[in-house]
TrEMBL record:
PANTHER family linked: K(+)_H(+) ANTIPORTER SUBUNIT KHTT, TRANSPORT PROTEIN YIDE-RELATED
Keyword Cell membrane: yes
Membrane topology listed for this record: Multi-pass membrane protein
Membership in a protein family: Belongs to the AAE transporter (TC 2.A.81) family.
GO molecular function (one): monoatomic cation transmembrane transporter activity
Protein name according to UniProt: RCK C-terminal domain-containing protein
Keyword Cell membrane annotated: yes
UniProt main location, coarse: membrane
Membrane-spanning residues: 38-58, 65-84, 96-116, 128-159, 179-201, 385-405, 411-430, 442-461, 476-496, 508-525, 545-566
Annotated ranges, domain RCK C-terminal: 205-290, 291-374
One Gene Ontology term, aspect cellular component: plasma membrane
Record localization: Cell membrane
Length: 567
């Protein structure tokens, strides 16, 4: 009986052969060929998640550590939209916006308001200058050059390589214009930021090295144990180390690198690495034996890792009380707090946000990181669906509020603004009634990436055709504007931060990367300064910058409308 395809189904035809009947030719001799038709129901969801899978794979490709990241989904979706004219699904686009910005708010909430208090006079002020100059520069160029508002905001988002800025811009202007500007500006903005930071780091390298030498108070020395008085003793039983605030961060024995915990026994002939103040290290080292020129890094199978204290159950407890060295068999070499280094004494209590520098095997450090660095292990071990529903309800409710503004007409935060505010509120307070606002970080990250991918797929389907058709000679001018959008704010921010606010060079670059949400720049900075200072500066301003960039796009739109720029 023949099969008739259902009107809503698409068929995929395969063929198969079977041997002939008795007395008839075999498989290679005129086999009977029967067509087999497999029916497959057309589904936009299948296409959507296929594009997400391909886009993520493309975005994960790296050339010298730089790639398209989540924007890879947008690029693949635009290509698919141009070639096959897929229809976007509006509800998935709206859901993607809400999930993405809600997750950003939840992640930024715990540190967003605290950052203003801790770093308001330096880092935050520098970020505000960066974004203020970026806003004035962008508005000026768009107004003077007659660039359409949608294209101009897309150019800004692409120049800053900022997905939150893109999402915000799409709330006010036609998608075709915004995506066109973003697509033109992204590669040139990326290249401009990389070149600026690379050249600036090379020019300022002597200053950065001088600052690094002046900042590093702790000294490292390597000595051979020759004093029989210390041989055969456990490290925790040697008060001489504690009395001089010196720690043993590693032991080289029989050409094998070992961790130095409190239960480690020192043996005659051990090569020990000591860390502490230079004077104390020299005094302890000469008492132990002779200083040697031994490079631990060449023989080490150990890692050094900086772990941030976020587990509230260990805050205000001393290192001796936690007994980290004995429990995890790792060496703690130093504690960084508010930019100041401390020797990890046993009576030193940990504070929230401390950076603990530890030496050990990768497995040992992973276990210690779970203990120190993940607040959700002691606060909330799972995603609360009821709480997630509450935050989504609040996001849609806030986004639906409309406020009439004189001269500008009705104003609303929209889905994007509502989701962001709801996330900040829940993330900041942590709990409102029975609803929890702090989810595990990996769960929040999955929601964020899923939301952004859903949004990018639908936008790419909708704009792929128009992007190609809009390419003309003006794209050259737009690319030049994109470089100006990126480089001018960075230059002004660096001059203001370093020469006016007296922020060290490496930290100033960290603030710039955080303000532009440009993580690859940290790799360039760390080639000269591999300390935690650029990372701390970046991390301090990043959540604030994400929120301010979204607000800046809205402010630029209102300013351009007020100036009568091209709609």
């Amino acid at each position: 009986m023949p099969l008739h395809p259902h009107p809503g189904l698409r068929g995929l035809r395969l063929t198969a052969a079977y041997p002939g009947q008795a007395g008839q030719p075999g498989p290679m001799e005129n086999d009977a060929v029967i067509p087999i038709e497999i029916l497959f129901q057309k589904s936009e969801l299948v296409v959507t998640f296929l594009i997400i899978m391909l886009g993520i794979g493309f975005g994960n490709l790296r050339i010298k550590g730089v790639g398209f990241g989540s924007s890879g989904v947008l690029i693949v979706a635009m290509i698919a939209g141009y070639l096959y004219q897929f229809e976007p699904i509006t509800i998935l686009q709206d859901l993607g916006i809400v999930l993405f910005l809600l997750s950003i708010g939840l992640e930024a909430g715990p540190s967003f308001f605290r950052a203003f208090k801790q770093h308001g006079r330096r880092f935050i002020a520098n970020v505000v200058v960066l974004l203020a100059v970026a806003g004035a520069n962008t508005v000026g160029i768009i107004a003077l050059a007659g660039v359409p508002i949608g294209v101009g905001l897309g150019l800004f988002a692409g120049a800053f390589t900022s997905s939150p800025a893109l999402v915000s811009a799409l709330q006010f202007s036609p998608e075709e214009e915004v995506i066109f500007g973003y697509g033109v500006a992204y590669p040139f903005g990326l290249l401009g930021v990389i070149l600026f930071i690379t050249l600036a780091v090379k020019l300022m390298r002597p200053t950065m090295e001088a600052e690094l030498r002046g900042r590093t108070q702790l000294h490292t020395g390597v000595y051979k144990l020759q004093n029989e008085e210390f041989a055969g003793k456990l490290i925790r039983d040697i008060d001489f180390f504690q009395d001089h605030n010196v720690v043993v961060s590693g032991i080289l024995r029989d050409l094998n690198m070992r961790t130095a915990s409190g239960s480690t026994v020192l043996l005659q002939g051990d090569i020990v690495r000591l860390e502490g103040m230079a004077e104390d290290v020299n005094k302890v080292g000469t008492t132990l034996g002779a200083e040697v020129q031994e490079s631990f890094d060449e023989n080490a199978e150990l890692d050094t890792r900086s772990l941030v204290v976020e587990n509230t159950s260990v805050v205000n407890r001393s290192l001796g009380d936690l007994d980290i060295r004995l429990r995890y068999n790792v060496s703690l070499t130093r504690i960084l707090r508010a930019g100041v280094e401390f020797v990890p004494r046993q009576d030193l209590p940990l504070e929230y946000g401390d950076v603990v520098v530890a030496v050990g095997t990768p497995y040992q450090l992973d276990q210690l990181e779970l203990f120190l660095g993940h607040e959700h292990h002691t606060v909330q071990r799972r995603v609360d669906i009821g709480s997630l529903a509450a935050t989504l309800f609040l996001a849609f409710a806030i986004g639906g509020i409309i406020v009439p503004l004189p001269g500008l007409g009705p104003f609303s935060l929209g889905l994007a603004g509502g989701a962001l505010v709801a996330g900040l509120v829940f993330g900041h307070f942590g709990r409102i009634g029975n609803f929890i606002g702090r989810f595990p970080r990996n769960a929040t990250a999955v929601l964020r990436e899923l939301g952004l991918a859903l949004f990018f797929v639908q936008v790419g389907f909708d704009t792929g055709q128009s992007f190609v058709e809009s390419l003309d000679y003006q794209a050259i001018y737009y690319a030049f504007y994109a470089v100006l959008f990126a480089v001018v704010p960075m230059l002004v921010s660096f001059l203001f931060g370093h020469y006016v606010m007296k922020i060290p060079v490496s930290e100033c670059f960290g603030v710039i990367c955080g303000g532009m949400t440009f993580t690859p720049g940290l790799d360039i900075i760390r080639q000269t300064d591999n300390s935690d200072h650029p990372v701390v500066a970046y991390s301090s301003v990043y959540p604030v910058a994400v929120i301010l960039v979204i607000a800046l796009v809205q402010g630029m739109y209102l300013a351009l409308v007020g100036l009568g720029a091209v709609a």
